[in-house]
Amino acid sequence: MKNHRDIETLSAHLDGQLDSKESTKLESRLKTDPELESALRDLRAARGILRKLPSRKAPRNFTLTRQMVRLKPPLPRSYPLARFTTVFAAILFLCSFTTNTLTPMLNFGFGAGAPAPEAVMAGECEGCEGVAEQEAAATEAPATEEAFAAEMAPAATEEPPIVEMAPAATQAADLAPSSTITISPEILPTEGTEGTEGTEGARALEPTQALKEPAPEPTVEENAAETATQPGVEPEPRRPFNWTFLFLAVSILSGLAMWIMRLSARRKWR
Amino acid sequence: MDETALITSAQQGDLDAFNTLILHYQNAVFNTAARILGDDDLAQDAAQDAFISAFQNIKSFRGGSFKAWLLRTVTNACLDELRRQKRKPTTPLEPETSDGEEIDSPKWLADKGMTPAQKAEADELEHAIQHCLNELPVEFRAAVVLADVQGLDYAEAAAASRVPIGTIKSRIARARLRLRECLRSFEELLPASYRLDEEQAR
Predict the structure, then answer these.
(1) Could you tell me if A45 lies within 8 Å of chain B, comparing CB atoms?
(2) What whole-number distance in Å separates Cα of residue A119 and Cα of residue A107?
(3) Domain identity same for B126 and B78
(4) Total count of domains within chain B
(5) Residue A258: inside a domain
(6) How many domains does chain A have?
């Protein structure tokens, strides 16, 4: 019996895997070594037997079905977009919903003196009337101011401007009982009226005159009352936009679109 | 059959194209599985699993011999099946003495020779060769089936077995030697063309 190295070399020689140098060397050894020659005959016989082994034919077809490979129908190209929208909207909805739900609870738990905004808005908490009024006034302030500004504009053309508008933020912050709204004359429209026929210098002087001779300034409450009495101008309470419902709606709609896409793809597939 | 076009279509999910490839290669795949496993039923299962796996992973095919790639898949399926059989728990047959005590080693019960049924089957040459193939270690068996039964060259057989060429070369050589030794006991079954001296005369 030859060693494993010799057997490997003989086997490779049979398969033509040796280079010419190795083959020549092996052939010279085979001429002088009968044991090596015998081993080569054994290997050649074994290989011949295996190569003559009849090939087994497949007893059946192995073709695959869609169910076997769990092949899914091709979906439209817009499907990933719908899926992304659904997931994104659902996540936003959950975040929004959780925030809206947890915020009052946290306020209740950690800040006993600070009532929940919803409670304040609804006027459910005792002793919150003042706060509620302030907040209501603050929320209504911009609308009232706009209405007031619109109303005051024509008057400003006839009479000297009597108010000066400060930034809205400061107005909201300074909603003390004595707070007043002043409107700058530069902002007010001055078209086609007698007030506009004056010289530029006269117009420039008007605000200073107004400052020197202050007219009775209307308070927010008065303005609100005034606008309320005007027919057709109803102050609408400004409600915060409810994003939670928007996210929910988008999530449901895009989910529905996904379902329809899959259904139609499956029908086409059949 | 435009094999490249069919492979490209199959890579894009065309099942019909892949089924055409299956019809072309199913005999080779089943034959390989049958020779490695030595059982037709298991070979059918392995071949089916191999084709499913091949379709699911066809995107990983980067060119070269598609047959070798398929045979690698079926070889893996066969090796998995053999490993699974090995892992399958068996109930040990523990012989007892007359006192009811278990004998430590029941090895004496094992019959290393062929069973009567196996002997009857081995009366035919094909069964004799299959018997000798089954006697080989799994890795040697797979190597010799790929190289000698399916006719792959060393590089393809090495790729199909995922081993270096040197390893496949060694396995083939040893497998041939062991087969020859095993087949000596069936010398009378071998036709003249398969006998030892015949190959020498070629």
Answers:
(1) yes
(2) 11
(3) no
(4) 2
(5) no
(6) 2
Q: For residue B35, is it within any domain?
A: yes
- Over residues B61-73, the pLDDT tens digits come to 988 889 999 999 9
Domain final residue pick, A12, A29, A52: A52
- Select from B15, B172, B174 the Cβ nearest to the Cβ of A64: B15
Minimum distance, in Å, between the CA of residue A30 and any CA atom of chain B: 13
* A57, part of any domain: no
Q: Which residue has the higher pLDDT, B108 or B23?
A: B23
Which CATH number do you get for residue B60?
1.10.1740.10
Q: State the residue range of the domain holding A26.
A: 4-52
Q: Cβ contacts (< 8 Å) between A10 and chain B: which residues?
A: 173
pLDDT > 70? residue B107: no
What ipTM, to 2 d.p.? 0.74
Q: How far is CA A36 from CA A16, A26, A70, A250, B183, in A?
A: 17, 9, 56, 82, 19
* Maximum distance among all Cα pairs of chain A, rounded to whole angstroms: 134
Cα(A11)–Cα(A17) distance, integer angstroms? 9
A63 pLDDT more than 60: yes
Query: Which of B51, B10, B128 lies closest to A58 in space, CA to CA?
Result: B51
Instruction: Indicate the residue of A48, A57, A69 with minimum beta-carbon distance to B55.
Output: A69
Q: Which residues of A touch B25 (CB under 8 A)?
A: none
Sort out which chain A residues have CB atoms less than 8 A from B154's CB and list them. Answer: 12, 15, 17
Distance from CA of B156 to the nearest CA of A (A): 13
